[in-house]
Amino acid sequence: MSKAYVVVGNGVAGVSAALAIRSRDARGTIAVVSDEGDYFFSRTALMYAFMDRLPRRAMEPYERHTWRERGVELVRARVADLDASRHQLTLRDGRTLPYDRLLLATGSRARRIELPGVTDDLAGLVHFVTLQDLDACEQYAPTTKRAVVVGGGLIGIELVESLRFHGVAVTFLVREPWYWPAALSREEGEMTAREMRRHGVDVREGAELASVARDASGRVASVTTTAGETIACEMLGVCIGVAPQVEWLRGVATPPAMGRGVKVDATMRTTLDDVWAAGDCAELADGRVESIWYSAKRQGALAGENMSGRPKGYASPVFFNSAKLFELEYTTVGALAEVEDGAESLYATHPTRALSWRIVHSGDKVLGFNALGSRWDHTVITRWIEEQRPVDWVREHLRRAQFDVELGRAPLHEMTARALPIARKGVS
Amino acid sequence: MRRVGALQAVANDVTNRGVSAWLLAAVLLAFYLGLYIPGETARLLTTLGGGVWLLGVGVAAATAAVHAWFARRDGTLVVRDEAVLGAKVFGLLMATAGMSAWFARALEPAVHHGRHLLPSPGVTWSTPVLAALLGVALAMGVYGAVRVLRERGDKGAMLREATWVLLAAQLATVTLAYGTHLFDPGSAPVAGDHSPRAFASLLYLALDSKWTLYGLLYTCAVSAGGLYMLGRYLHNRYQVARTLVVIGVQATFGFSVPVLLKLFAQPQYYLSYFWPLKIDAFYPDNILRDPAPFVLWSFLGSLLLVPLLGIFFGKRWYCSWVCGCGGLANTAGEPFRHLSQKGEAAWRFEQASIYTVLGLAIVTTVLVALSALVGPNSALNGVWWSGTGAVSQWRVDGGLHSDAIVTVASKARYYYGLIVVAVLSGAIGVGLYPLGGTRQWCRNFCPMAALLGLIQKVGRYRIRVKEDMCISCGLCTQYCEMGIDVRAYAQSNETFVRASCVGCGMCAEVCPRGVLSLEQRWPGRAAQRAKPAAGLVQLRLRK
Lengths: 428, 543
Ligand SMILES: Cc1cc2nc3c(=O)[nH]c(=O)nc-3n(C[C@H](O)[C@H](O)[C@H](O)COP(=O)(O)OP(=O)(O)OC[C@H]3O[C@@H](n4cnc5c(N)ncnc54)[C@H](O)[C@@H]3O)c2cc1C
Ligand code: SF4
Ligand code: SF4
Known about the structure:
By secondary structure, chain A is of the alpha/beta class.
């Protein structure tokens, strides 16, 4: 008998699972239920859509006829209830959906800020996670002279860059002493802040929001910082991180075990029979929630394989990531902030260009690598870390890991390195 | 969205395929039809008469119907959108028909009709206009020179700014050549006269053709667009180098060298084009007419240089660094690159059409060569062995009618020139920039691209994909002028080479995660090492 697979959430985790299931099970029915949009889209492309660099349709990684051809049914609805004892979902519109195997891939939602004056009906208040957030941004930007963006991470800087593109003046409030201490050293954070200032952003490190005032029409009029400064603005962007979108699961007929997210074992199975979870909403056995794209993709595919009968375990890879901070390319591999005591950095900069690399090491052992302003092949550095190449060797052979455009290699030989202590996050 | 001025609003409308884009496309289409095939265009319009309306309605309805069929398949059919599309196509056709008649008249060679509708030698513009234009050229030159000096030390930036000076020189030349009697000798130059005045009068003659005017405009467009490119991608050395070379090749081999050749009473040879793009390089009558060094260059280039460099560097060495068609696309056409048709239907069309044209090019060349061999006026008559005798024998015995071959060959030659060269490379190739992106010709029709693409598939060039780093944002696909779904490869960790890829490097430039890198290396270890991505598998793309 053919199986009925149901996936909740059409993000990258859910869709990767559906495709993995289909490649192993040609006959089962697959339904993907999601309420945000009709088709799978790339959340990471949100800023490019906002910046008019992509039409919305181009955010979709697959052509639309793919789903019909692959036999994946798309259901636009919000799931309201889960009854694992009856193998059944209830949608908010009252319909029920039976399943044999279920995947929860509900992703994450933007953290809200709790402050006097801030309610969800505040006009001009935006987050930057969903398509609906994008609608709101596009609605408010043309009538905004100045926006205040709160939050010192990746999503924050993406919103800031998009707003600058639209000619909006932006004040960026970063609570920490420098931008993004979870990933960058003070020097790197300051280099990024210089890049932002070069693009006209008013960056305020160590600044926190205290209250928000609205005008007669109910729109943001100004914000006040904890230092007592009042900044007039028409838009307030809150990008203080994301949290697994699992609150709805606390009230269902049969809730799975949950911590911050839905708890899963190494095969992405939850504590409920025939229910798996993957992506931003899943909490791994060691308590971590990996809310990044690659992890969601891997976990989704893995869950799909497990659901269609091939048991396979998940192992977190050596951490790597990359980003573009305005025009500054950023690559990171391994551990940089949370490292053993006694670890130190070797930090190299260029005399004139915004270019740096940093190797974090403990004695001779390389732990992590950070670079700004040029492109790197993280797979080469990962291999070096795994092969335990000594620091000096890595330093000498760095150019082998360069990934810049042809003719445009970053001039490593013009850079000078010095030792730096590891600055702990939040230490000012 | 953004608060913008009127000029910017029009520019946005053009690059977003708005109404202004359709208008611009009509102007370009009409210009090219009038330029390349004024006679045929005029004849067609006269023949059609009032039927032109009917034809417009028919084509518009058919386009809308096909589009609607695809939209319905995707479940995104909106009847109003299809009606609007039909109306736009109709408008495009009518505007093109109307304007092309005008362009055909305006661009008719002055020598034939003694008319000077466009500024051409012999027209003296009013002094203020001349002074203003020369003033602008001078200002641009000074501005460029100052900027070059300011960038001392940074060679890339110096070269970029030098383009201003080039542009200024071009503007001054056009103004002087077409706006004054400066070069007008008053009488035809006398043979053996080597005075500057005789030289000037030769220049006058050299510029006296719509093709030279066109070459000048083309070079200006490439330089101005190149300036825009350089300003935009100054941080990317690959783009800077490529753009400078493209401008340089156009200004020399694409324009001044042919003009100089004409000055020295040589055939106007474009040394940067090879068979099959320059199909007549292999036509026997040209081979016999043109000086030996040129013929040798064409043969060595087409048969040796092109394939060899193709094996080592992929097609990019030609399509993105040398060729004038690609040059215009990657400079003046740059703002339109994202409009290329994506998706598998477009890919299927491309494969069918480009190899068809390659086939036609080969067949036409062979036919023309044969006809020269066997025709009654065989070019080889008396050159070789007494070939005609043998062939006549052959004709009697084998039933091979040399007369028929000659007729068919001359027809093939004519229609290839009309359809492929004039309509597809000229009118459609450039005219549809604002609607379908910049590489219409290169992607769908160019026989040279077809050939180089096949070579590229077995050569060293490829686009390397950094494992697991792609976030599927889609910028690479959107900005690929060849409509390649780069994302499909990137998100499934697949290092790849597609026949159509011209190696413009823009996918690598726009990728916000630095996933892609153009490289030359034989497939082998690197390919084996890569592990397939988990999730977002590549579903349908064939290699
Ligand atoms: C602006 C932005 C930029 C980012 N950039 C990067 C980056 O550069 N690199 C990187 O690694 N990561 C990035 N991320 C993170 C990355 O996008 C996420 O890790 C990834 O999208 C998670 O995918 P997912 O499938 O788990 O969940 P999601 O993509 O969040 O999909 C979950 C879907 O489920 C739906 N859903 C939830 N509950 C229900 C319900 N009850 N009923 C029906 N549907 C429901 C939601 O509406 C949503 O559509 C970025 C995130 C944002 C917001
Ligand atoms: S794949 Fe990249 S390099 Fe090739 S044509 Fe497309 S954008 Fe240019
Ligand atoms: S631009 Fe880069 S990150 Fe975006 S889809 Fe293409 S390869 Fe992936």
